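Note to self: keep these together.
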Amino acid sequence: MQEPAKEPDADEARRHLAGRPVREIMAHRVETAPADMRLDTFVNHRLYATRHGAYPVVEMDRLIGVVEPANILSIDRERWPQTTLAEVCTALELTPCAAPDDDAFDILQRMRNEDRPRMLVLERGVLVGIVTLDDLLERLALASRFEPE
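Structure:
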């Protein structure tokens, strides 16, 4: 059984993450959901099956926003069969995003300050990955064990 990662201090995080681009840490494969998918179908066939905390929503290969369980739970269940992801997702312009070359330490700080567990990674408006707080903390834990000070 793996021990839970200890919460790193800012100096340790800076030492191991500063200067590293997010592209080295982010997940490159991101499962998206179509904008016209109905909430009941999404919950039953995507959310339960994959259990991700957020799904980028795409319309004709164009990213329009992100849907999280809270977006869906704000809608009465009786309306799920008539409501699409496009209708409930958080618009892209309201979604915090990073760029692939953004500094990993800076992104960690932003996530902590904004209480965000994840951030989409966009390059010229195109979704290229997602980085989570867990990804950053796992990388930090590994770096603290394997990289000399």
